[in-house]
Amino acid sequence: MGLKYAGWVVGLIALVLCAGVTNWTAGLLSKCMDLDPTIITFSDIAFISFGRKARVATAVLFTLELLAACVALIVLFADSLALLFPGTLSTTEFKVVCTLILMPLQLAPLSLLSVTSFVGIFCCLGSK
Question: What's this model's pTM, rounded to 2 decimal places?
């Protein structure tokens, strides 16, 4: 859609520039992680680069981003279910149901969740 609105020339130039910036920042992160093998997270990089306050700020921003992604998925699930099953529950009720179903999955082991992820990928590929 971005290429459609920007046009082929401007869109491809923007795409190549974004890919170059992504490559450059990945290289910088790699160099930072090569300096100290104890660096595991972005918060560790922020701590080494800018101190304790940057570590806290990075952790807060990543937590907020993950929370926003969870809320967006619940809204997407609820809106989709409301369209698939019209008249059964309201969108708000579907949001509550989706939240109650997804909350226990936060405590589920990754080995179980990986199976459900594979099934989702297989279903997407099989629908074409």
Answer: 0.63
